[in-house]
Task: inverse folding
């Protein structure tokens, strides 16, 4: 009897609760995206709309049910946030699980999940790690940059994620800045060309394909122009300079239909970008016609003036569409709700933001395929992808000196000494944004080939490799010494420096070997040009290798003649700290150690 009643009432209850929602009007992929968006906007409650504008860092979720409860629209993995296992399939499970909570909401709007895949899918153990952008700048090869982004999109898709916070299209003007390596180089034209290539690679021709992801041009704008190269600092310049040096990559990104743009932490003439209506709304959205959505940077809204309510009102009214909270989403939603109800933020403004976010979700095909395409997961870190990374490494190396044609080295040399702080240091080779936010030291962080191992694999059986980190074993009987020196991993402001001198240990190693009379090839692993004068002088050959990533074999390819160097500097190389900031059009460009575009071959 009871069962019969239930069978009878259930369809009526279902009909009643669905009466106001005609699912088919937005789930039918045959309908135009703008119709699907308008329909959703017409039936969504205020809570549902504001949830779409909220982005939470997954490790800051208090309760997974909050995804459903607050109708959250987006999650991100901050640097290093995610499953710390060696199996990428765990990432796919991780993603699918979050997604299931979003699908459980009344409207079943899927999450858009963002991650910093800035040189490959770099948070994931075993993923292919490509050179950081500064090295790609030296390749001058847009096809290669596009291919790298295409592969990265595939690896990201293999863990379900939909969106990368890349490419960074900063135009770094001051090497003291800790994010110099995240930009392709000092020249706006180069950054624009390679930024466009990366966006094409990530987004492909069809965003709804399972192998493509949404790209982000970041950080808008003039992040690379701050005073003294200070991260999150103040860019003091007139509008003409801003438009000439820092804006062009965004014009290019919009030409490629970039899906999102991230606001920058820095200020322009004292005003934080996160609150700048002129630059975000008037210039970006209206003048340049950007149709995607603007995401804030990590808690960037909280750097604005006033109390939290005022900060949020300023940011949203200035043009930010989605707020990377990243943690305090409950106070954020309370505050945003209050400001909409009191009229400080208009409903039109909210609908505009939500409409753009929903448009991206429809275009990505998230409603049709919200879960991970598991056929892509095994491609993560595949040999085919690593081969492209190796090609990128060899094309990114810049040969700065090659006295008496020391390079290429013969693979049959009897005895080779390998030394230096970074010879056996996969962590340093990969740099920041690798497995963790700041990166790591040593060889355990992920799967890859340190330069030492690459050299061992490249020489013939007749050759003996002696490894001595500090060059102690050198007695002059070696045919050559390969000394790999440079910076240890860092990210963002933690990499800001007052001086860019080599460490005393690195210099000591080179001096010691020089005293023994052995010829020296120095390989510099660094996120930027450094002050290398003495080391350069003592070396017979010198290679700038930037932050090459996991494929150390690309370095060996150049050392041993499998690839004659083609890399060209994407920065003017300073001879001393007091020349910085220095670029090709600086007054003192003629006094640089090496000009922009320099690069030898053999
Ligand atoms: C960085 C962004 C990054 C974001 C998310 C911020 O601190 O400035 O580049 O995309 O964190 O990890
Ligand atoms: C996160 C990064 C973020 C940074 C900002 C870190 O904890 O992992 O993604 O950029 O905080 O301070």
Result:
């Amino acid at each position: 009897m009871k069962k019969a009643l239930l069978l009878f009432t259930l369809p009526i209850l279902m009909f009643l609760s669905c009466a106001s929602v005609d699912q088919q009007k937005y789930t039918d992929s045959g309908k135009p995206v703008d119709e699907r968006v308008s329909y959703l906007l017409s039936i969504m409650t205020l809570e549902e709309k504001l949830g779409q504008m909220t982005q939470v860092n997954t490790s800051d979720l208090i309760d997974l049910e909050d995804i459903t409860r607050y109708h959250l629209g987006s999650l991100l993995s901050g640097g290093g946030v995610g499953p710390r296992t060696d199996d990428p399939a765990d990432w796919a499970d991780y993603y699918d699980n979050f997604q299931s909570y979003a699908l459980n909401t009344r409207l079943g709007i899927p999450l858009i999940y963002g991650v910093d895949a800035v040189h490959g899918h770099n948070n994931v153990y075993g993923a292919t790690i490509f050179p950081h952008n500064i090295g790609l700048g030296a390749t001058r090869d847009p096809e290669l940059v596009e291919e790298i982004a295409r592969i990265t999109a595939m690896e990201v898709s293999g863990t379900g994620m939909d969106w990368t916070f890349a490419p960074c299209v900063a135009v770094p003007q001051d090497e003291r800045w800790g994010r110099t390596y995240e930009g392709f180089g000092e020249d706006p034209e180069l950054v624009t060309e390679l930024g466009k290539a990366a966006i094409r690679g990530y987004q492909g021709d069809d965003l709804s394909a399972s192998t493509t992801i949404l790209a982000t041009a970041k950080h808008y704008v003039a992040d690379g122009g701050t005073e003294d190269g200070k991260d999150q600092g103040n860019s003091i310049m007139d509008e003409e300079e801003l438009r000439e040096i820092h804006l062009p990559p965004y014009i290019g990104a919009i030409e490629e239909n970039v899906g999102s743009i991230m606001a920058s932490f820095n200020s322009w003439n004292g005003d934080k970008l996160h609150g700048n209506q002129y630059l975000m709304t008037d210039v970006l959205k209206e003048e340049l016609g950007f149709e995607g959505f603007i995401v804030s940077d990590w808690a960037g809204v909280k750097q604005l003036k006033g109390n939290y309510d005022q900060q949020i009102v300023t940011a949203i009214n200035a043009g930010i569409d989605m707020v990377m909270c990243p943690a305090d989403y409950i106070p954020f939603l309370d505050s945003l709700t209050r400001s909409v109800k009191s009229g400080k933020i208009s409903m039109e403004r909210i609908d505009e933001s939500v409409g753009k976010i929903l448009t991206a979700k429809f275009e990505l095909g998230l409603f049709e395929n919200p879960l991970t395409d598991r056929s892509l997961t095994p491609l993560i870190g595949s040999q085919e992808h690593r081969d492209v990374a190796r090609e990128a490494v060899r094309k990114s190396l810049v040969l700065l000196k090659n006295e008496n044609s020391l390079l290429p080295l013969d693979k049959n040399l009897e005895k080779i000494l390998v030394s230096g702080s970074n010879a056996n240091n996969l962590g340093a080779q990969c740099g920041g944004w690798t497995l963790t936010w700041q990166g790591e030291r040593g060889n355990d962080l992920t799967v890859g080939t340190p330069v030492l191992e690459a050299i061992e694999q490249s020489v013939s059986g007749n050759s003996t490799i002696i490894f001595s980190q500090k060059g102690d074993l050198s007695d002059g009987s070696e045919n050559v010494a390969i000394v790999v020196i440079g910076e240890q991993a860092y990210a963002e402001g933690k990499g800001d420096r007052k001086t860019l001198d080599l460490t005393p240990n690195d210099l000591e190693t080179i001096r010691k070997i020089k005293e023994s009379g052995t010829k020296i090839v120095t390989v510099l692993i660094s996120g930027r040009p450094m002050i290398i004068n003495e080391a350069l002088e003592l070396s017979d050959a010198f290679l700038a290798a930037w932050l090459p990533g996991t494929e150390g074999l690309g370095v060996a390819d150049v050392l041993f003649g499998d690839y004659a160097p083609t890399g060209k500097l994407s920065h003017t190389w300073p001879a001393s700290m007091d020349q910085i900031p220095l670029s090709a059009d600086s007054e003192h460009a003629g006094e640089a150690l090496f000009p922009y575009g320099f690069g030898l071959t053999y």
